[in-house]
Every structure is written in structure tokens, then in C-alpha cells.
């Protein structure tokens, strides 16, 4: 659970100065909210993208799995999260099958 104040109207956010683009958070997200985008200036040539914030269910699995404390989830009292939909669940599967990369480039 994040103790940081969420940026306005944002359920989940990434500190790009800490993210090493390891894919771990993408692999645990059940709702297809996260994916990696190409980023030439990053060591691994990628950076985490909060691609579908409207589908975040606030489970905190991404925050709890990040080894670098680079991703944060808003407090449940500060943000109304959505429910996990069949579409979001399928998108999560599609992103993982797409090697954790964004589906639309
Ligand atoms: S788990 Fe952390 S370091 Fe890895 S991609 Fe996600 S935010 Fe970046
Ligand atoms: S809080 Fe849960 S649903 Fe939201 S981005 Fe993190 S892992 Fe995905």
C-alpha cells in the first residue's frame, strides 16, 4: 500500500527514474493496465507504460512485486477503482503473450 499521495485522478503511477524495465509488474497485473513501451534512452530499451489506467482494480500486486519501489498505487480511500472485467483480464493475457509489450505501437 502506497503512503505517497497519488497524482490527481491517477490510480497507479511509475517513477521512471527508478524503473529498470524488468517486466515483473506487467507479469503480475491481472487487468492489462501495464505494458512496456520502446524507450531508446533506457538501459533495456523499454519503459513501463500505464496504458489502461481506467482498468486498474487497486490490487497493489504491481507495487508489492517491484524490486525497485518504482510503481505506486493510490490509496483505496483516495481513488475509486474499477472492477476486473473479462475484457481487462483478456488484455492482460494478450500483453503477456506479446512479450509484455504494448499491444498498439
Ligand atoms: S517491476 Fe518495477 S522496475 Fe520492474 S518494470 Fe515494473 S516498475 Fe519497473
Ligand atoms: S494495482 Fe493491480 S490492477 Fe492496478 S496496475 Fe497494479 S497490478 Fe494492475
From TrEMBL:
Gene3D superfamilies attached to this UniProt entry: 3.30.70.20
Annotated PROSITE patterns: 4FE4S_FER_1, 4FE4S_FER_2
- Keywords of the record: 4Fe-4S, Iron, Iron-sulfur, Metal-binding
Q: Name one GO molecular function term.
A: 4 iron, 4 sulfur cluster binding
Q: What is an example of a Pfam family matching this protein?
A: Fer4_9
All copies of the 4Fe-4S ferredoxin-type domain together span 10-39, 46-76
- The protein depicted here goes by the name 2-oxoglutarate:acceptor oxidoreductase
Q: Which organism is it from?
A: Halarcobacter anaerophilus
Amino acid at each position: 500500500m502506497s503512503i505517497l499521495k497519488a497524482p490527481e485522478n491517477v490510480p497507479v503511477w511509475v517513477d521512471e527514474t527508478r524503473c529498470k524495465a524488468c517486466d515483473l509488474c506487467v507479469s503480475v497485473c491481472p487487468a492489462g493496465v501495464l505494458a512496456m513501451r520502446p524507450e531508446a534512452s533506457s538501459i533495456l530499451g523499454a519503459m513501463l507504460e500505464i496504458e489502461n489506467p481506467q482498468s486498474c482494480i487497486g490490487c497493489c500486486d504491481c507495487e508489492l512485486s517491484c524490486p525497485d519501489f518504482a510503481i505506486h498505487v493510490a490509496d483505496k480511500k483516495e481513488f475509486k477503482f474499477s472492477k476486473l472485467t473479462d475484457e481487462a483480464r483478456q488484455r492482460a493475457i494478450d500483453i503477456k503473450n506479446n512479450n509484455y509489450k504494448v499491444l498498439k505501437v
